[in-house]
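CHAIN AND CONFORMATION:

***
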Amino acid sequence: FLIHTSILKKICPDICNTMLGIDNAQQILEGLQNSNLFITPLDNNFTWYRYHNLFAELLQRYLKSKPKENIQKLHLTAADWFQRNGLVEEAIEHFIEAENYDRVIQHINEIMDEILGQAKFGICLQWLNRIPDSYFLDNPIVLLHQVFFLYEMGEFEKCHQRIAFAED
C-alpha cells in the first residue's frame, strides 16, 4: 500500500482503492494516521493526506527498483483517476511521469484557454519543458505556446532556441 501510493503528492481513500484494487483504504489511512506513521491529513475532513517528504522519498526509492513498466502503470492509473475527478493538473503530472506525452499534450490543449486566462505560464512551461522534442513535431501549436510562455517568462535565450527548432 505505502510503496504503490508513494507516487502521489496527495492521497485520498478513493484513489488508493482505485490504484490498488482494494476497498479499505480509508481504514488503512486512518490507521496510519492514528499510529503517527509519517502521514498528515491535509484537511479537517480527513479526506486528503500526504506522506512525510522523507518517508515518501524512501518509499519512492524502493519503488524505483521495480520494473519501469509497473511504475508507469501506477502513474497512468493515478492520472486517469485525477482526470476523471477534475484534477487536470495532477493528471498531467502523472501522465508526464508515465511518459505518456501524447496525453500530456492533449490535456494541455484542452486547458489552454484556462492557462492563458489565468496566466499559468510557469506551470505549463514546466510541463512542456519535460516533453521530448519529437512530440512537438506533430504539435506545432503547442510549440508556439511554449515559445510564447518562454517570452512572457523572460527566458529569451531559450525562446530563441525554440524558435530556431520550430523553423527547422
Observations:
- The beta strands are 39-41, 49-51.
- Residues 92 and 117 are 18 Å apart (CA to CA).
